[in-house]
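// run 5 | inverse folding | seed 20
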């Protein structure tokens, strides 16, 4: 099928390349000429494992191309909209400027019977408004939220857990054109539907809500265990053992019970804030009032990490050499948007510590927003002469591949703060380190 993808950021670029890899003819459209040039020459403009291979293969097969001109999208059976919905500068709601611009552009080229499939994360009610703008063009607007995780975006796109399609409905029933659009999307995702991936057809509002509810739930799970970490800290309990123990209950599950410096990135923080802002507009702020608490617990964990470092260094970090392992908001990503890791590093710098920071992928992005820090590419160089080491992003390079005995031979002071509870505390202690975890004795 001929498809277009409007917006070639983390979501759109991966979607375009993945759709080409399963046999579709895809054009990716973005307003950023640099991004389009990079993608068109087979280079991913951001770090995402497996993406470059897909780009190169797609371009070589002729199935994939990129352009800044929306005219190139003319005639596609489905136009996916994957532009960003960042947090507004003047508040916590989502900024829909890019979504409106994308729809506006599409209105000039979209044809009868074509489908506009929104993938961006939007406040509930947005799709219905956009459907009104589209009516009269002969095209149908559906909402098809994306659940991909950075670092696993390619696999999550090609083999998702579930596919959700919100279609126009009347009196609780999908309209005939909605049903037809859902069938077209079944065909688009043929590799997943052939494997019986759950394919949920619903109304527009439910589809929009599925996405924000999923992210709200994940954020809540993380803040729940971080709240338990706070209690563990004043009682001498170990939150890691606690998470293991409650995680054995199938109803709870161990995933996303990793206590530490909390969640960040381009999705969870802004999505829970936008959800709370939307609920307020709907007169239901009390329904998701807990999300503000979730946000606050999350941000408190960064304070706690800073406090641990200060305590571990005897009450002041001033002119102490602190090595920060990690800058990205999570491993397998170069994304530093709302990164707890970089936040902790810059706060310690603000307290007068000499920060040396390293990361396998995110140094260039981090340097752009926090140029005051000292960046070192080589992990071992970064460790040399550290008075204290803090792990803030659980890359394998630090979690698995850093031998504590070897690390002991590099540092000046054997003090380690495990901001992600990802290290083997016993092994670090055995190598002579004083070990501090988050919510662990
Ligand atoms: C998230 C959702 O998982 C994804 O479905 C959605 O489409 C976009 O938002 P992503 O932002 O890529 O994906 O990251 P995710 O893997 O969910 O991690 C988010 C943050 O939570 C990271 O900062 C991570 O370090 C943190 N986290 C995760 C924890 O602190 N503890 C955990 O146990 C798990």
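// decoded
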């Amino acid at each position: 099928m001929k498809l277009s993808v409007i917006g070639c950021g983390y979501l759109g670029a991966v979607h375009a390349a993945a759709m080409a890899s399963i046999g579709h003819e895809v054009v990716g459209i973005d307003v950023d000429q640099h991004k389009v040039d990079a993608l068109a020459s087979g280079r991913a403009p951001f770090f995402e494992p497996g993406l470059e291979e897909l780009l190169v293969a797609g371009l070589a097969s002729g199935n994939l191309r990129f352009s800044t001109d929306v005219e190139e999208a003319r005639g596609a059976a489905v136009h996916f909209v994957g532009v960003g919905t960042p947090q507004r500068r003047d508040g916590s709601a989502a900024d829909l400027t890019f979504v409106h611009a994308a729809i506006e552009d599409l209105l000039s080229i979209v044809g009868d019977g074509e489908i506009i499939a929104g993938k961006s994360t939007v406040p509930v009610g947005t799709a219905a408004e956009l459907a009104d703008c589209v009516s009269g063009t002969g095209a149908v607007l559906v909402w098809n939220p994306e659940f991909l995780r950075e670092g696993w975006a390619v696999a999550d796109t090609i083999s998702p857990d579930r596919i959700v399609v919100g279609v126009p409905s009347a009196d609780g029933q999908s309209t005939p054109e909605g049903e037809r659009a859902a069938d077209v999307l079944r065909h688009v995702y043929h590799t997943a539907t052939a494997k019986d991936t759950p394919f949920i057809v619903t109304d527009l509002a439910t589809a929009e809500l599925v996405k924000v509810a999923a992210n709200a739930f994940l954020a809540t799970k993380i803040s729940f265990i971080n709240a338990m970490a706070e209690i563990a800290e004043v009682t001498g309990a170990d939150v890691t053992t606690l998470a293991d123990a409650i995680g054995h209950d199938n109803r709870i599950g161990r995933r996303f019970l990793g206590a530490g410096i909390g969640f960040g990135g381009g999705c969870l923080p802004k999505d829970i804030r936008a959800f709370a802002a939307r609920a307020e507009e709907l007169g239901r702020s009390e329904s998701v009032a807990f999300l503000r608490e979730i946000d606050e617990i999350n941000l408190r964990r960064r304070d706690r990490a800073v406090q641990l470092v200060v305590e571990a260094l005897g009450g002041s970090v001033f002119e102490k050499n602190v090595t920060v392992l990690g800058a990205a908001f999570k491993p397998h990503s170069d994304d530093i948007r709302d990164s707890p890791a970089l936040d902790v590093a810059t706060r310690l710098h603000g307290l007068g510590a000499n920060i040396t920071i390293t990361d396998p992928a995110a140094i260039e992005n981090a340097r752009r927003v926090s140029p005051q820090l000292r960046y070192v590419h080589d992990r071992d160089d970064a460790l040399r002469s550290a008075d204290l080491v803090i792990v803030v992003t659980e890359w394998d390079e630090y979690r698995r591949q850093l031998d504590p005995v070897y690390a002991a031979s590099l540092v000046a002071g054997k003090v380690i703060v495990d901001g992600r509870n990802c290290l083997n505390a016993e092994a670090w202690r055995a190598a002579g380190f004083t070990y501090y975890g988050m919510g662990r004795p």
